[in-house]
Write a structure and sequence with these properties.
Radius of gyration: 14 Å
Largest sheet: 4 strands, antiparallel
CATH superfamily: Galactose-binding domain-like
Structural class: mainly beta
Low-confidence stretches: none
Distance between the termini: 26 Å
Order of helices and strands: EEEEEEE
Mean pLDDT: 97
CATH class: Mainly Beta
CATH topology: Jelly Rolls
């Protein structure tokens, strides 16, 4: 999955996911690529596929203002699915 985000140059952003993961599927890995930087997010069980929580994934500093490509890719799927993703959140710090 790929799309563009518009970020302000020189700002650091906390990256988090609003997600759900059923027991037995935890330990999966989601690769989050923002521009040329990659963050690996490891899933944790949240109770069920419908129990959403916000989970910290890492941070990203925008080198310039404007659009940047954001790409999500499954790296490891240990159970029936990787993650139920509601949103990917960029919070300026």
């Amino acid at each position: 999955m790929t799309w563009e985000a518009r970020l302000e140059g020189g700002k650091k952003y906390a990256i988090s996911l609003v997600n759900a993961c059923s027991p037995g599927a935890e330990g999966g890995e989601l690769e989050i690529t923002i521009g040329s930087e990659t963050i690996i997010f490891t899933t944790s069980a949240t109770g069920s596929w419908k129990d959403f929580v916000e989970s910290a994934a890492g941070s990203y500093t925008a080198s310039r203002s404007g659009p940047v490509e954001v790409r999500l890719r499954a790296r490891k799927i240990p159970g029936e699915a990787l993650i139920n993703l509601r949103s990917l959140v960029f919070t300026p710090q």
